[in-house]
Every structure is written in C-alpha cells, then in structure tokens.
Design goal:
Radius of gyration: 19 Å
Order of helices and strands: HHEHEEHEEHEHEHEHEHHEEEEH
Number of strands: 13
Structural class: alpha+beta
Largest sheet: 8 strands, mixed
Strand content: 25-35%
Distance between the termini: 40 Å
Shape: globular
Helix content: 25-40%
Number of helices: 11
Length: 330
C-alpha cells in the first residue's frame, strides 16, 4: 500500500467506537435543552479524552469547531497516545448539533481515521456540493452531469423507475433549483434539516429507503462519509462550494480548485480507513442514547475499509464503573 508513514493495518475501528460512544453519552444529556455550545463542549471533552488513549499518532485534518464557532478539536491538534500508526483524523463530535439542541432526529457523534497524508484537507473551505450513492449505483454517477441524467442512471442501476427513486436533500434555500429539478424528474424527495453524514450512509443501507444524497453540505461531513462509504461499497463525489466571490477568490489564491471533481480517492486515498458513528438522538441510521439510571445504552455503526466489515454495536455502559475509571462524569 502506497501511503506515507505507518499504515493502520490493525483494527482501530473498535477503538473508535469507544470514542463516539463517550461523546454521544455526554452530549445526549443536552437533548432538547437548546444549548448547542454546551452539547458541543461535552462531546468534544469526551472525544478528546478517549482519543488520547488510542494507540496511534494522530493529527486532526478535519475538525468541526472552526465552522461552527464552537469548542473544537482543532485542525492540526495531535491526538492518540503517540505510538504508531501515523494517521489523519477527521472528527465531527456532533453531526446535527441543532437537531440535538431542539430534540430532533438524526444527531450522531462521528470520527474517521486514515493513513497519514491520505485524507483530503479542505482548509477553511467548509462547504461542498455532494452526490452520494450506495453499492448498486457505484460507478454510474457523475456530479458534473445534469441532475436528471444522474437520477436516470441511478434508477437504471437499481432496477427502479424515476418515480420509485428517493433522494435526500438538506432543506436549505440554496437547494431551491435542485429540488425543482428532482420534482420535474418525478422522483421522491426527503428534505432533512441537518445531518448529511447519516444521509450519505443511508444510501448504502438497502433498508433505509434512500437512494441518493444530493446537494451542498459540509466538507468535513463529506470526508467522513467517504471514509464510511469505502467500507460500505458506496460512492461519493464532491466539488468545493464557495459561499461568495470573496471566498472563491481566497480559495483560488490558496491553490484550491473549485471546478475539480473530488472523487472517493481525492477525499480519502487509502482503503485502510476506519469510521465510527454513535447515535445521539434517534434516527433511521442509529438509535439514540438511552439513560436508565445506573446504565446507559448506545447504538453504533463501525466500519473498516480494508476488510469491508460493517458492524452495528449495541452497548450497555455501567455508569458507576465508568465514573470510577474516567476523568469525565457520565
């Protein structure tokens, strides 16, 4: 495998589950309380603490704090206990901070690892246009083609009519034209308020009812989804999106190409990737955290790209034992 530094050939995926479980358990107590900053801080504190115990020499390539003006696991921060392997790390302590704060669905804690130098670093340019599909439509999409052509190709690959196809799109004013195009094609639309990591992964789950993710969302979420879809057999393509002419100018001056199609290999160029997500609030992908007094239950998705293994883990955590061992209170 042609990567820089040591390759993470042992299975770090289960270690990542501990990271996202901890973040979800602490952040979950903020559900519906309207306190996005408090929830973010709780998730970051838990994630940082457990990441420090993982056998790796990690550098955060994508941290969520800069975009949200929230407490962050910042870009360039070192995580892990300093041993090999050398890895890039992408984190989104809460994908769906607003749904969590207002007691809505599909909030997740997520993290991904890849060998050092293999993960796309978007710098300060945090939005991208995305097109994601599951295994059946892999290799059949092209983000530069018109929407109708992609929908026809996906429908054909999945043995469906356009009317049977279900798209998932973030409910944003910027998607007005895209939504009109999908409606004209006759396909079904599911609009979501937030959480496009979960939405991208749902395209690779046969029982989710979702066939394709379309539209502009976060670049960090795109890289995290690419890591997961590597193992799940799907595909995601993207193009960096500038919110205004000043951002476009600054991006071009910094060497970023907003016309370039970012393929799976551009977003993460190694198969030896790991991804974990734990549900914070209930969603179609994962159940949310449950609190039972003396124990907590979590539901997680854990994937390993090298083997294509996808695990769903339901865990029971005994709170008094956790509290006796941990520097944070569960």
């Amino acid at each position: 495998m042609d990567v820089l530094g040591a390759t993470p050939t042992r299975n770090l995926a289960l270690e990542l589950a501990r990271v996202t479980e901890a973040a979800a358990m602490l952040a979950g107590r903020f559900m519906g309380r309207g306190n996005k900053e408090g929830a973010d801080q709780a998730a970051v504190n838990a994630m940082r603490l457990v990441l420090s115990t993982v056998d790796m020499n990690g550098i955060i390539v994508i941290g969520e704090g800069e975009k949200d003006k929230a407490p962050m696991l910042y870009n360039g921060e070192k995580v892990g206990n300093g041993s090999t392997p050398d890895v890039d790390v992408a984190v989104d302590p809460i994908d769906g901070t607003r749904p969590l704060a207002y007691g809505r669905t599909n909030s997740l804690a997520t993290v991904a690892l890849a060998p050092r130098g293999t993960m796309f670093n978007p710098g300060p340019f945090v939005y991208m246009n995305k097109l994601a599909v599951g295994p059946e439509a892999k290799g059949k999409i092209d983000i530069e083609r018109p929407t109708i052509e992609n929908l026809k190709a996906i429908a054909k690959a999945k043995g469906k009519t356009l009317e049977d196809l279900t798209t998932i799109i973030l409910d944003r004013p910027r998607h007005e034209v895209l939504i009109a195009e999908v409606r004209k094609a006759g396909s079904r639309i599911r609009l979501i308020p937030d959480g496009d990591v979960a939405a991208a992964l749902m395209t690779a789950q046969s029982d989710s009812g979702v066939d394709v993710l379309l539209g502009i969302g976060g670049t960090p979420e795109g890289v995290l989804a690419a890591c997961a879809l590597r193992a799940m057999g799907g595909e995601i393509q993207g193009k960096l999106y500038a919110r205004d002419e000043d951002e476009l100018r600054r991006g071009r001056e910094a060497g970023y190409d907003f016309d370039k199609v970012l393929t799976m290999n551009d977003l993460v160029s190694s198969e030896d990737v790991f991804f974990a997500a734990t549900g914070i609030t209930d969603g179609e992908l994962l159940k949310g955290v449950r609190y039972h007094g003396n124990h907590i239950t979590t539901d997680s998705l854990v994937v390993r790209g090298l083997t294509g293994t996808v695990r769903q883990i339901t865990a029971t955590h005994t709170t008094d034992k956790l509290d006796s061992l941990s520097a944070i209170h569960y």
